[in-house]
Recover the amino acids of this structure.
């Protein structure tokens, strides 16, 4: 189930498993593949970015951009307002806290929170 409004770049690079739920206002920048596994629940206003830009300012100024795939496993829960950055993989059964900024891979079964997202102490 995808609750509107929903925004994406292309749509054809998104693969969604069965029984996935995306709440209101989700954004997926799918310039390259974005995969969401079965049973995953995604809160409102979550943003998933596969689009990226060069770090070198001269190259960036040329308008060049590229993408890095995002993979979200099965039975993952992503809290409202979280941001998933390009190239991140989130393992099965993981949890991402509301408002977290996920800059690195999240292992299977892990919980991460904060900016940048980390395991809570």
């Amino acid at each position: 189930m995808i609750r509107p409004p929903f925004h994406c770049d292309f749509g054809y690079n998104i693969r969604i498993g069965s029984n996935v739920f995306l709440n209101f206002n989700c954004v997926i920048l799918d310039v390259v593949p974005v995969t969401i596994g079965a049973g995953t629940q995604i809160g409102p206003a979550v943003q998933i970015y596969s689009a990226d830009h060069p770090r070198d300012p001269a190259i960036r100024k040329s308008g060049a951009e590229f993408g890095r795939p995002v993979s979200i496993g099965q039975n993952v829960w992503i809290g409202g307002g979280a941001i998933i950055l390009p190239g991140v993989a989130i393992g099965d059964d993981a949890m991402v806290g509301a408002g977290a900024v996920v800059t690195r891979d999240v292992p299977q079964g892990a919980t991460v929170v904060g900016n940048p997202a980390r395991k809570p102490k």
